[in-house]
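Re-run requested by the PI after the first attempt was lost when the workstation crashed. Everything re-entered from the original request form. Ligand of interest: uridine-5'-diphosphate-glucuronic acid.
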Amino acid sequence: MKNKLIKNICCIGAGYVGGPTMSVIALNCPNLRVDVVDIDKEKIEAWNTNDLSKLPVFEPGLEKLIKKCRGINLFFSNNVEENIAKADIIFISVNTPTKKKGIGAGFASDLKWIESSARQIAKFAKGHTIVVEKSTLPVKTAETIKVILNSSDQNPSGNNGNKNKTFSIVSNPEFLAEGSAINDLQYPDRVLIGGEDDNSIKLVKDIYMKWVDQSKIITTNLWSSELSKLVANAFLAQRISSINSISAICESTGANISEVAKAIGTDKRIGSEFLNPGPGFGGSCFKKDILNLVYLCNYYGLKEVADYWEKVVSINLWQQNRISSLVIINLFGTLSDKKLAIFGFSFKANTNDTRESPSINISKNLLKEGAKLNFYDPKVNKKQILSEFNTESNVSICNSAIKAAEGADAVLVLTEWKEFKALDWKNIFQVMRKPAWIFDARIILDKSLLEDIGFKVWSLGSS
Ligand code: NAD
Ligand code: UGA
């Protein structure tokens, strides 16, 4: 398969990874045609919308890329079969959530979307196709994909008049973070490519070399690449759980978590990033990927290693529950018939993604105590917020911060949206019931300024 000319790329899965990643590839590789396909009709319609503010993914800089590339060398469609058939390289970017039932439920990744993608590739691909694992996967998934691709059931020799159907598998995990995805893709710290044959690795590498310096492209064997993705997320999440655990000691001792984070982060060996304390990590991946790692460790008989990593997840939940309890205790031990304003529902700023957002768990704890909740988030719509709760009773969605604060006993800042810093807090104080509380779980507000206005303020990690 040497010197294969790559002309057509297909990406299966038009989600938070598939959409932005392929947009950046299309931008940097004008000679390639990039087709992003998905089984979700509504999502594809949204990717093709003329009103770019309605794209299914909100990411700073994404609209500009779509405007530049869509319809030129970037296409979104539901034509899965047709685009698989003409692709030289297929990226699989489908979802890999935690299994909800059966063996490994609650820990292992559910690979049913990976399996169905592999079966479709086996059936419709033609000639030699490089299949790239872009989704985050358990180590050894490439083995499973290989078996499916080569099974005679899916891939009968001579089917489609194609006797020479062959595949190579490459692992190319994605490290983008939501909210900064376009920048992360355009200027990555590294690109990781794992594979078994040098030629396929080279062909995938050639794509990235159009805009990424060769020194930043790391090549490994398949299993190191698959495992490195899980480990990178585990290490990042571990830092957050570490700093959050220390936030509690700060509250008990008079130390200040922001000062401690700065003091330790200036040590080059520790580094200053990912030391922001908060209401725990959210997002679709940290928890799922660590639990997946935990499952793998147990599978290979490494119980101590599994227990070590599982603690990162349990501290995360503990932090959320701890914050909920502190709110209840400070509001005289009961939330019955009290109104609380929740500022921020996305799992971090600059995204409309709410998967595993700490706001969800904290809000559920407060609802259980009888609170009425008013939500305000600059980017998450009403339908999305309501979908996280079984009931609409005691849940109101507001279109401004001031509306959400009306008559409330407390405001909880759970996402670090920039606009929360610039709110007219004097005005907010006026419309709240007194004593008016602010629980700043992201440490983004000026505590003494708020206290001067008259608020009672709880700020994470200080007394
Ligand atoms: P997502 O849910 O936003 O998108 C996945 C898409 O795949 C969905 O639109 C779904 O309809 C589609 N799909 C599923 N099966 C399909 C099939 N057989 N054919 C066609 N389309 C199909 O998920 P995501 O956030 O983009 O994550 C995708 C993968 O990337 C996951 O493994 C995740 O762990 C990993 N990842 C995510 C991020 C992130 O920031 N979200 C970052 C790095 C890696
Ligand atoms: C994370 C990783 O940063 C990406 O490298 C990875 O590709 C991605 O997961 C993935 O595999 O899905 P993401 O979840 O989009 O990206 O966003 P992060 O910036 O990592 O934030 C995750 C959560 O941790 C958020 O809830 C955020 O508020 C929280 N966080 C982050 C903190 O509480 N403190 C910090 O210092 C940093």
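Saved to the shared folder this time. Residues 158-162 have pLDDT under 50 and may be disordered.
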